[in-house]
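quick one before i forget lol
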Amino acid sequence: VKSPNVQVINVKKVGTQDRYRVILSDGTHYIQGMLATQLNSLVTDGQLMENTIICLNEFISNVVQDKTVLIVLKCAIVTNHPSKIGNPEEVYKANIGAPA
């Protein structure tokens, strides 16, 4: 999927450098991410918050401490949802692609 829609299930400011960690979910699994600093205004203006659905227009993945972290470079707000969708589990605990 070129520009997937995902739900932001958590937003947290980290450190003293105005960086935001986000937890992104497809409704089944979730993964940690970081917002590029140029997207900070989406959080500070109240557009991007817990349960917001976003379209990931541009992102990269980095491996940090043996886990993949998505860096959100460009996104669009789709809608604000009243609650978390599904009961997502961490993608690393789901054994995706593990041999049977």
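fyi The radius of gyration is 13 Å.
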